[in-house]
Amino acid sequence: MKPLYDKIKSLCTARGITPAELARNLGFSKNFFTELKSDRVKSCSALRLSAIADYFGVNVDSLLRDGVSVRIPVYGEVAAGIPIDAIEEVIGYEEITPELAASGKYIALKVRGDSMMPKICPGDTIIIRLQSDADTGDTIVAMINGGEATCKNIQKEPNGVWLISNNTAYKPMFFTNEDIEDLPVIILGKVIELRRTL
To answer: What 8-state DSSP symbol labels residue 166?
Structure first.
């Protein structure tokens, strides 16, 4: 089983803080995590465990068992057809590993529409690493014309970009470099995982 200190440190790394900063934020003694790391603290009180879990938005049980995870919000819906406004209220949560969370900022989005079928289907949840650029061949979520979003494959050209559906019934959309600036066309992030409820 992964030591408690290592799990807490992973959560701290994902949040961008140190264990010492966590101790200060929670009002613990500055030596608490040092002692926990060296096993001089053999157990962590239920109250402190609860405070740590609440701080990171995880369950106390996940700190005590293997596979602690980080919760990320699921927002609105992303059109896989005609673009729609994507970011709405939080409609749920997904969990990712602390190691993945430490590699960037992540959100989850719900897909609707059939333009990315058969790979991505209506009702699927996609895990997005927020980033402003992507490589040719990446599946991305792009914000178009001030708030509309669409999930597509990107192909870069010297004079612009193609946003391409998996479903051949939908024509590829081309945006010139001028369109990208004027509309604008903004890459919200890269799809790094697909989750489907059977």
So the answer is: S
pLDDT digits (tens, 9 = 90+) for 48-92: 888 988 888 777 777 777 666 788 888 876 655 544 444 556 788
CA distance linking residue 91 with residue 86, whole number of Å: 12
CA 76 to chain centre: 14
CATH architecture of the domain 4-68 equals: Orthogonal Bundle (1.10)
The share of the chain scoring above pLDDT 90, in percent, equals: 40
Instruction: Give the CA angle between residues 147, 115, 74 to the nearest 5°.
Output: 50
Cβ distance 141 to 128 under 8 Å? yes
Active site residues: 115, 152
SS3 content of the chain, % helix, strand, coil (to 5): 25, 35, 40
For residues 85 and 103, what is the distance between their CA atoms, to the nearest angstrom? Answer: 27
Domain with CATH 1.10.260.40 in the chain: 4-68
Report whether pLDDT(30) > 50.
yes
